[in-house]
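Ticket #4471: structure output looks truncated?

Reporter: J.K.
Steps to reproduce: submitted the chain below (164 residues) through the standard prediction queue, then opened the result file.
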Amino acid sequence: MNERRLAVFVMLAVLPWTQAPAQQSTSTTFRVSARVNAVCEITASNLGFGVYNAQAGSPLLGTTLLRATCTPNSSYQIGLNEGTSPGATVNQRRMVSASTSVLNYQLYSDSARSSIWGNTPGTDTVTGVGTGLPQDHTVFGAIPTAQVVPAEEYADTITVRIYY
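Returned output as attached by the reporter:
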């Protein structure tokens, strides 16, 4: 039996064995890219001055907030138009009553109420740089004293525009 085993081993040793071919490969690359465009959003809260008294010794003051959310590092400017009242300009804003009486007011970009907030980029707008998070901008309003007007409700609508 030993001879027979030896013969089997010898035959197995001389038989051609098929080897699995060596695995081959090749490779390539591809680029992954995206473009992020600047995006801004602006929201506004109403400005309610309250009750106006023409005999008050000082202007009636009020404030409201604008909230700008822009892509990080995006420069922006916020403008306020003249409003919807007939004859109004950025330098002379007007609220109108149902009887078309006029109550003058103004909107400013500073708490001293010395810089009129307008709608001309680079001239009378407010600037900022986006962070990706909401950023608040205060609108400072004033109704001058000594306006003789009927006792009515007065209103105007301002359009806020963000340039980026």
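Triage note (M.O.): checked the attachment and the full token line is present. The chain has one helix and eight strands.
Status: closed, working as intended.
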